[in-house]
Design goal:
By secondary structure, the protein is α/β, with parallel strands linked by helices. Helices cover 43% and strands 28% of the residues. Strands 5-2-1-6-7 form a five-stranded parallel sheet, with helices on both faces. Helix 3 crosses helix 5. It is globular and about 55 Å long. It comes from Moheibacter sediminis. Keywords: Cytoplasm.
Length: 150
């Protein structure tokens, strides 16, 4: 059975990426691992007094994200594809590349929002960085121009 890692950020575009991953999984008798990487500053708020860490806020956000992952897992399984979910906190690129190695993934299916070069230079692109650092083959799903009008 092929192991396919699919990074998720909960954007509307993720459905297209998941659907492509499902199509590929059918072809190779694959199992999907949906991974969401939460930021390290989930429970941090900024106020006049500076930064404040609120563990209950972090817990709430992580619980909401876990619920969303359960829904996505059910969606994948409704298409007859085996699926597991992973939620980690950290730097997305590092976590995705690391999990791919730990899972001995055969493929990473990742979406690319198609920002321009200037955006990528200042902000960066998770897909671009995963391409740079991953030793696992990737299937990059581009966001079509009409999708960018959302």
């Amino acid at each position: 059975m092929s192991t396919i890692l699919v990074p998720i950020d909960f954007s509307d575009f993720n459905r297209k990426v998941i659907n492509k991953a499902i199509e590929h999984a059918r072809l190779v008798n694959g199992k999907l691992y949906l991974i969401h990487v939460a930021t390290l500053d989930l429970g941090v708020i900024v106020s006049e007094t500076g930064f404040t860490y609120l563990p209950e806020l972090e817990e709430t956000v992580l619980n909401d994200e876990a619920d969303k992952m359960i829904e996505l897992k059910a969606f994948v399984e409704s298409h007859g594809i085996a699926c597991e979910t992973i939620i980690r906190q950290g730097v997305p690129v590092d976590v995705i590349v690391s999990e791919a190695k730990l899972l001995n993934a055969d493929l990473i299916v990742i979406g690319s929002l198609g920002h321009n070069s200037l955006y990528n230079m200042f902000i960066g692109s998770v897909a671009s960085d995963v391409i740079k650092y991953s030793t696992v083959p990737l299937l990059v799903i581009p966001k079509e121009k009409e999708d960018n009008k959302e």
